[in-house]
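Journal club prep — side note

Before the paper discussion, L.F. wants everyone to see what a predicted structure for a comparable chain looks like in token form. Sequence:
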Amino acid sequence: MTKIHAELGVLPIGTSSPSLGRYIANGLKKLKKVDGIRYQVTPMGTMIESEDIDKIFEAAKVVTNAIFDMGVVRVETILKIDERRDIDHSLEDKLKSIDKTT
């Protein structure tokens, strides 16, 4: 089955502090409960992997709503999706292919 990859970035807007870690942590706590996905946190966003595009959208919605639930009134959500149907590649496989060429 083909895996779908996505990069999710969320930006709470209008918070009382420039520090956003607690909002992101709450989003990740809720993301752990979404079945059918794997994810890797990076300093600039979260990589999501699933065999079902609807699970990618669900993950983005869950994270965004977790931030809204903290009282934030505006959240910018950036979702970049890479869906390839000719081969079955994991996030790790993508990194390995880069390593081979460097």
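L.F.'s comment for the group: The mean pLDDT is 92. Keep this in mind when we get to the figures.
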